[in-house]
Amino acid sequence: MLSDKLRKWLISNRVWEIYVLLQKLPKPEVDLVSVLYEQIERAVFTNALAMIVPWPSLNKKFLVREMYEFPKERLRIKYYSYALVETGDRIIIRADSAPHHERDYHRKLLTKFPHHLHDENGRICSFSGGLGDFINLAMPYL
Amino acid sequence: MPTRKASSKITKEQFLAEAMRREPNRAKIINALVKQLHAYEKKYRMRSEIFFKLIVGTPLEDQEDFLDWAMCYREYFKVFQSQLSEENVAAHVVG
Fold it and tell me: Is B8 within the bounds of a domain?
């Protein structure tokens, strides 16, 4: 059985990885480190992270949701959803691992099912599943 | 105008040390989750448990609000479950 301390350590390390990846984006208009500490505190109980990185001056926000499991004393992302959203909650792009699509909008099998991207036109595209890759896709919109 | 950050001001060691030092507040987390669930219940005029039974696991789930609602509900149960072993939580019922 995984100890609470080790679980917290694994979650904190994942949150640090997210913090580093987010450095590629414009500086958030919030104290990101404080937000991340709150997320760790929440994830200790829920095994999940649900954070918002806002840029009010750009009318955009970045959503990161991840749910974790801990097989063999390691952290594994069981489920995720990443989204770039603009004012009025219109989704610009979103990626997630919900297993509801097998094929992209060209009817080709997704290269890494169940990972998929909803592009700016709402079309389903193949996606790697990595937050870093999603951030690279989001950067041109920011 | 937002600027791109050249480098982080906090080191990984400092970040992890502070994260490990902090004591999470379970009641605060439950309250935040209940508030979120109630907001969705009000918006869609549906109780969370009904939403979870009807929508989650179906293609309808693949919408931003529904993904968030479903995750919030799972989180709620996870934190609720962890509290059950420690104290009586009869007062914390969603709905």
Answer: no
Q: What is the Cα gyration radius of chain A?
A: 16
| Cα–Cα dist A50/A71, whole Å | 21
Place of tokens 């595209």: A125
Where exactly are the structural domains of chain A? 4-96+128-141
Q: Which chain A residues in 37-96 lie under 8 Å from chain B, judged by CB atoms? A: 37, 40-42, 44-48, 50, 55, 57-58, 65, 67, 79, 81, 83, 85, 89, 91, 94, 96
Q: Locate A58 and state its tokens.
A: 């750009």
Query: Looking at residue B82, what is its pLDDT?
Result: 73
Task: Give the DSSP H or E segment for A91.
Answer: strand A90-96
Instruction: Show the domain range for B74.
Output: 26-84
Q: What are the tens digits of pLDDT across the range A20-33?
A: 999 999 998 889 99
| pLDDT of A74 above 80 | yes
DSSP A108: P
Kind plus residue range of the DSSP H or E element containing B82: helix B64-84
B14 part of a folded domain: no
Does B56 reach chain A within 8 Å, measured CB to CB?
no
- A6 contact B CB<8A: no
Tell me how many domains chain B contains. 1
Alpha-carbon distance values, B11 to A25, A33, A81, A135, B18 (Å): 18, 11, 27, 22, 11
Which residue in A139, A81, A9, A95 sits closest to B15, CA to CA? A9
Q: Is residue B66, in this structure, part of any structural domain at all?
A: yes
pTM for the full model? 0.85
Coil/strand/helix, residue A127: coil
